[in-house]
Amino acid sequence: MKELNDNLKKQLNEVSEENRKMEIQAKRVQARLDNLQRKFEFMTIQRLKGNSHVAHEMKSLKQEKVPVSKTYKVPLNAQVYELLTVFMDWISVHHLSKLKSEESGMDGEKPLPKFASQRNDIQEKCVKLLPVMTEQLQWMPFVNAKLHEPFVKFIYWSLRQLDAGTQHSTMTSTLRRLGEDILKGVVTKGIQDNSLEHSIENKPKTAAFFKSSSLPLRFLSTLIVLKTVTQADYLAQAFDSLCLDLKTEEGKTLFLKYQAVPVIVNHLRISSKGLLSNVIDSLLQMTVESESLQPFLEACSNTLFFRTCSVLLRTPKLDLQVLEKLSIILQKLSKIK
Predict the structure, then answer these.
(1) Where is the Coiled-coil-domain-containing protein 138 coiled-coil domain (predicted)?
(2) Taking the model in full, what pTM does it have?
(3) Could you tell me the residue ranges of all domains in the chain?
(4) What angle do CA 315, 321, 325 make, to 5 degrees?
(5) Distances (CA, A) of 238 to 178, 187, 210, 266, 275
(6) Cβ pair 178, 130 in contact under 8 A
(7) Contact between residue 238 and residue 179 where contact means Cβ atoms under 8 Å apart
């Protein structure tokens, strides 16, 4: 009887262990299925982007209602907007994109008092400007689409200037609204004031950012979403879009141009467990052999990146696939020239 009892216990333990393995496998399969479903939906949307009726089709596909804001009266002089966006582009490229203070902070060096003071001044101005810029998104449907990119670029670099500070913690609601407007786009019903012709335009107008067919605008919008929103489903959409765009050489070039490594690394943590695979996939796309590989590896060669990876690697029960992908990236970094 004792021997029979021992055999039964042994069989029970084996069955329990097998059951546990099956449960783990089922969870992985379900997670993979969910990820594939999200990718399928996103790729369907990508194919629709070239269609002239994209706004209507994507709204029905996503089943998302973009709120139509109140009626706006738009001034005629479009040259004012063109002039402003030229200034924005100039400031973005020659001032806001200079993130030396952020880079030195990542490697543990304290900036000189003079530069620290300049950085604080810039951050204060960005904190004042961002709520205004968020409001101005409502006017974008009335502005020439070619002006959207410098406008969004200015927003992006303003956000990046806040990375090294703490002032953005007081702007939670502004950043959330900014991220959602960039993600969903803006639909506005307005009256266009044309004093010369006295014409009135009452048709709803749309401005697409994250869903734009223009890769540079879409890429910038994706990075803004990653910096502003916290909802997991929105972040998943953003990472899916990023991975698709990084399959192109232009996407890789934009990744380097907009110094996107810190934006991605910010999500490379165990608290973002559901997104870890997506985050790693986007970094993995940059390790494909191309002209962008060496600059990307150099951008990753800093204290912030290695410290983040170290924390992640010490996490117990880290998903095996995430571990394998991370090891590939670290192996590439070990061979940096």
Answers:
(1) 1-47
(2) 0.71
(3) 1-48, 66-229, 230-337
(4) 90
(5) 14, 20, 8, 14, 11
(6) yes
(7) no
